[in-house]
């Protein structure tokens, strides 16, 4: 509606309504636009009394003017509809709709129609009442107006009411189309209702059968589930027991590892001590005490024992003190070899020596054992236990010629007896170890090809015989070590 009508002042309203005081009970008809269909047989209600519309309109009313402007009557040949006719046209679309549209199945307008409807401005009820009253005012006789209404306002009012009429017609047409579609769908649904109902019943029966099968499977599954739950509980119980056993096992295993490590540590310690003892034993076995105690060698053609030279040469003079000391070590070595073999030179034989020998051999051995060595350093002696039982000196001296001659004779006899003792011991060694080879043969006063007597040989021959004696003692000492090992 035009804003000028909405904000109409009360004085202007009273001025316009005062012309309606003499028009009571007149009937008006709404003449629509020439292109629009006319509204027929719609009797409009009479205009309300001026006092009814506005009780206070008589206050300060302007007196009626006798002369009306001619242009108002010329430009307004048609009469405007009253409020009753407008209300009838406004309600006509709803009155033409079917009862089915009033229910829950009435469709909502399309989005395009909603946007079109929302574009139409709907005034409030108070504004509509004012518009309808103005329409009644305009529909009256223009000659009765004491104050004319302008043509522009009348045109705007008619344009607004025409828009309202077009909107109502559009709604009516949409509802009619929807009603036809709904009736067509109802008729189509009625034709196939029987078949669809039969199919639905069949579907229901099939669903019931499937439901019974599913229920049976469900019960079977529930029973299996209960069985599995019982088995699961049993497995959990066994698992807990197994966990306890496993825990106990690991405790025992850890204890076993500790004990094993302790035992292994002790074993390693014992093994280390054993290896050290083995090494020490190997060293001790490799050590020859007799070889270390009696070190035999040769120096400038003269045999030595423990660093003492036994013999002398023309160009290598040796003192008798050193030679006598060397003879003492030589006699001690021969006595030591006899003790190692448990063999005595004084006529007493050990039973172990006689095992496996014949009686003549035993008697010969007994008969030959007639000497006894007395090692005394530089003053060693050899004693005869049979015959004259004499004791001979095994050392020389630097006395005057006659005394030296007598002494050398006794010294030569002592050395010959020593050589005989060496022969007896060598024979015993060969008997015990047949693999022993003595390179020098002992016969009377000779060993090899050299004589051991000093009086009838040169210093070189005597020294060579003494060197052979020392070498023979060294071989017998090594042979006894091999036998003992």
Please explain how this structure is put together.
The chain has 16 helices and nine strands. By secondary structure, the chain is mainly alpha-helical. The chain folds into three domains: 3-92 and 116-189, no CATH class; 192-287, no CATH class; 289-484, Orthogonal Bundle (Actin-binding Protein, T-fimbrin, domain 1). The strands form three sheets. A three-stranded antiparallel beta sheet has the order 1-2-3. A three-stranded antiparallel beta sheet has the order 4-5-6. Strands 7-8-9 form a three-stranded antiparallel beta sheet, with helices on one face. Helix 12 packs parallel to helix 16 and helix 15 runs parallel beside helix 16 (459-484).
Percent of residues in beta strands = 5-15%
CATH architecture of the largest domain: Orthogonal Bundle
Largest sheet: 3 strands, antiparallel
Whole-number mean pLDDT: 73
Strand arrangement across the biggest beta sheet:
1-2-3
Name some characteristics of this structure.
single chain; about 475 residues; mainly alpha; Actin-binding Protein, T-fimbrin, domain 1; 3 domains; 3-stranded antiparallel sheet; 16 helices; about 60% helix; rod-shaped; phosphatidylinositol 3-kinase binding; Atg6/Beclin_C_sf; coiled coil; Autophagy protein 6; Atg6/beclin_CC
Task: Report a brief summary of the structure.
With 485 residues, the protein is mainly α. 60% of the residues lie in helices and 6% in strands.
Set out the fold topology.
Elements: H1 3-6, H2 10-17, H3 50-53, H4 70-75, H5 83-90, H6 92-96, H7 111-119, H8 125-139, H9 151-191, H10 193-286, H11 289-293, E1 296-299, E2 302-305, E3 308-310, H12 320-340, H13 351-354, H14 359-368, E4 371-374, E5 381-384, E6 391-393, H15 401-432, E7 442-443, E8 446-447, E9 450-451, H16 459-484
Antiparallel strand pairs: 1-2, 2-3, 4-5, 5-6, 7-8, 8-9
Helix pairs in contact: 12-15, 12-16, 15-16
């Amino acid at each position: 509606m035009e804003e000028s009508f909405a904000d109409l002042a009360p004085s202007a309203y009273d001025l316009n309504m005062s012309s309606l005081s003499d028009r009571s009970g007149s009937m008006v008809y709404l003449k629509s636009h020439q292109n629009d269909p006319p509204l027929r047989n719609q009797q409009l209600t009479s205009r309300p009394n001026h006092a009814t519309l506005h009780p206070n309109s008589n206050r300060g009313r302007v007196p009626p003017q006798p002369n009306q402007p001619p242009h108002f009557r010329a430009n307004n040949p048609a009469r405007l509809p009253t409020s009753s006719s407008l209300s009838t046209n406004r309600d006509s679309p709803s009155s033409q709709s079917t009862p089915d549209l009033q229910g829950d199945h009435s469709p909502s307008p399309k989005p395009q129609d909603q946007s079109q409807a929302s574009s139409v401005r709907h005034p409030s009820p108070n504004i509509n009442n004012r518009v309808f009253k103005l329409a009644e005012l305009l529909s009256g006789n223009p000659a009765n107006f004491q104050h004319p209404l302008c043509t522009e306002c009348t045109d705007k009012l008619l344009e607004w009411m025409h828009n309202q009429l077009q909107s109502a017609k559009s709604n009516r047409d949409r509802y009619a189309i929807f009603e036809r579609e709904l009736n067509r769908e109802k008729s189509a649904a009625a034709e196939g209702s029987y078949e669809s109902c039969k199919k639905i019943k069949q579907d229901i029966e099939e669903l019931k059968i499937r439901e019974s099968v599913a229920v049976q499977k469900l019960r079977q599954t529930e029973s299996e589930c209960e069985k599995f739950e019982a088995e699961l509980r049993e497995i959990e119980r066994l698992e807990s027991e197994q966990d306890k056993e496993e825990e106990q096992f690991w405790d025992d295993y850890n204890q076993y590892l500790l004990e094993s490590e302790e035992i292994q540590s002790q074993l390693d310690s014992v093994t280390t001590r054993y290896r050290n003892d083995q090494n020490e034993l190997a060293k001790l076995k490799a050590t020859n005490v007799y070889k270390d105690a009696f070190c035999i060698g040769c120096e400038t053609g003269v045999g030595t024992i423990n660093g003492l030279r036994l013999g002398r040469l023309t160009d290598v003079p040796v003192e008798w003190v050193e030679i006598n000391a060397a003879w003492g070590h030589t006699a001690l070595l021969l006595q030591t070899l006899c003790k190692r073999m448990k063999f005595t030179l004084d006529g007493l034989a050990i039973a172990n020596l006689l095992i496996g020998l014949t009686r003549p051999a035993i008697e010969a051995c007994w008969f030959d054992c007639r000497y006894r060595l007395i090692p005394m350093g530089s003053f060693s002696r050899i004693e005869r236990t049979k015959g004259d039982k004499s004791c001979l000196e095994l050392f020389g001296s630097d006395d005057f010629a006659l005394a030296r001659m007598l002494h050398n004779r006794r010294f030569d006899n002592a050395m010959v007896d020593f050589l005989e003792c060496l022969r007896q011991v060598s024979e015993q060694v060969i008997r015990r170890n047949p693999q022993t080879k003595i390179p020098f043969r002992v016969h009377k006063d000779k060993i090899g090809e050299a004589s051991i007597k000093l009086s009838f040989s040169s210093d070189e021959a005597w020294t060579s015989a003494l060197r052979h004696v020392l070498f023979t003692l060294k071989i017998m000492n090594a042979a006894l070590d091999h036998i003992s090992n």
